[in-house]
Please model this.
Amino acid sequence: MSKIAFAVHGGAGPDSEYIKKNKKEYEKGLEEAVNAGYAILEKGGSAIDAIEEAIKLLEDNQHFNAGKGSALNERAEVEMCASIMDGYDLNSGAAAIVRNVRNPISLARAVMEKTQHVYLGSIGASEYAKMLNIPMEPDPYFITEYQFEQYEKARKKENDNGQELAIEQLGKKHGTVGAVALDKRGNLAAGTSTGGTEFSKPGRIADSSMIGIGTYANNNTCAVSTTGEGEFHIQHVTAFHISALMEYKGMSLQKACHYLIHEKCKHVTADMGLIAVDPKGNLIAEFNTERMHRAMRSSDQKLIVKIYPDQ
Ligand code: ASP
Model:
């Protein structure tokens, strides 16, 4: 039987009381998502189907910063970004700063499969989702009590200081969900979806929606989904870099991921994390943060669900 492999992540960053308190819920959400994607692959389904299904579950789960439970921007609004890529033909789709779309990953997939474009943004993207009858939700659906509290804290801090605050001063509040897959036909795929960084400027576009940065897949090398502080991932072209290190330098997946995060970017003080899979079904999670929510499973590896670094 050909090998299959699947992994999801639910964001990398600092630990928090909220994460500690909701550890079980996070683990349950990760397990459900990885099992849903894996079940599709087991039945012979495509890597793209598995990615969309798992990410939809994470977007619908209020604990993760994507879809319901997204971070709020400076105006207390939710603007979401997502992308998906098929390693078979490099076909890709992305949607940026969309509002009210319940599952931005499904919109990204529709852009990939039904348009001549790769990337739709803002009002045009949301209108396209409506036209395709992709489920929409009213604003309050996306705003959770937790995210509103975070927003209020950030707003209060900014008011107290009377000036614009850098995101680090606000305590690095961000998060994302993502998935990578290898299906029975040997096809790789990746997808990523986010509510972005907390208290960002309206109109900020997250790296998670950028092909080659948040998401990349190529059957010859690997599929990658990244998480962390998007502005830094953009500077380091993270997801494509992993593929390039494998293709141009002949590195293994594990070596490429370790090299990028811990050697090439070791001077980078920002949060960076990623999950990746190669055509042999090797699964990697690499991060420089206190925690990265993740779960993985393959023909060779039983289910792993983790939040903190390996011991
Ligand atoms: N990369 C996401 C962003 O910058 C956030 C994250 O992954 O934590 O919007």
Observations:
- The chain has a mean pLDDT of 95.
- Residues 23-42 form the longest helix (20 residues).
- The CA atoms of residues 99 and 109 lie 16 Å apart.
- DSSP finds ten helices and twelve strands in the chain.
